[in-house]
Description:
Elements: H1 3-19, H2 23-26, E1 30-39, E2 52-56, H3 58-75, E3 78-87, E4 90-98, E5 104-114, E6 117-125
Parallel strand pairs: 1-6
Antiparallel strand pairs: 1-2, 3-4, 4-5, 5-6
Amino acid sequence: xxxxxxLHHLQSVYFDNVDTARPGDxxxxxxxxxxWQHTQVWAHDGHDSRHTDRLDxxxxxxxxxxxxxxxxxxxxxxxxxxxxxxxxDRGAFRARVVGPEGNSLGFVGWVELRDGLIQRYIxxxxxxxx
Length: 130
């Protein structure tokens, strides 16, 4: 996977499906044994950057996302991947969550790749709120 392929994979396979409430399609971005670690970027519905979720496996991720995507539809946020870099089987990216009024919060991610899919995914806010 190269830089453009990772950017496309994150945006089109993962985030676009998260943003349109299709968790079954979103989890196709990951290997069945994915390690998924996410620190909340956009505070909503009692979720904030003081908590990090860690999930093991695509089934656990699907269950988690099935609950969360409805909340994101209500607050109308979208994810935009701005850049991605890949070196061998590892990569990093910068992205942002954009709200309905155009305000945005940045986040960064680390990924490890296997067989054209994401096997490890770690995301955290670029700037933690005080």
